[in-house]
Amino acid sequence: DAMVIQNPRYQVTQFGKPVTLSCSQTLNHNVMYWYQQKSSQAPKLLFHYYDKDFNNEADTPDNFQSRRPNTSFCFLDIRSPGLGDAAMYLCATSRDGLEQYFGPGTRLTVT
Amino acid sequence: DQQVKQNSPSLSVQEGRISILNCDYTNSMFDYFLWYKKYPAEGPTFLISISSIKDKNEDGRFTVFLNKSAKHLSLHIVPSQPGDSAVYFCAASSTDRDDKIIFGKGTRLHILP
Lengths: 111, 113
Description:
Chain A is mainly beta.
């Protein structure tokens, strides 16, 4: 089945220790997104790729970086996680920028 | 400044009755609207959408109504089933501007037996 896969599902990292979250897709969609979602909040877009074009949201902290080495994979790097970065991180893909298909998310805990 | 607002954090509905989830938006450039459903520990899944050229779209038990003049849309689920218990996110997009959609905070729907 075509899908969006996120690994790991749960990630625990220490304060200030870099962490990388990964996302892969078998849908062959050209747009990939990273969202941060905290409890009872709307998913907040961090950045997205349209093909290889990177689009950063204005309020995304510099602490968050992303890489998309090919169509199928996208990574979220958090260079120095703080306690406030604990959240669910959602990856999504889209063919047309409208309907987005989400992965199951990675829940990040910062200790 | 929320562009997509879901003012009811939660809603409880008896099984078999109609569930109505509401959503308001402020940006008049939005022309495409979506509803997503989210179970705990899963990512949101697309449910139904509507373009601004329509005022109603139906898919099985799910119907979305759009009132452009009021900048309001609603999702109707009838009849409500236990498996409908989830968080529902309203989302909106401006199709000629970018590839992004803006989400509301969600409404948690509880279907009561």
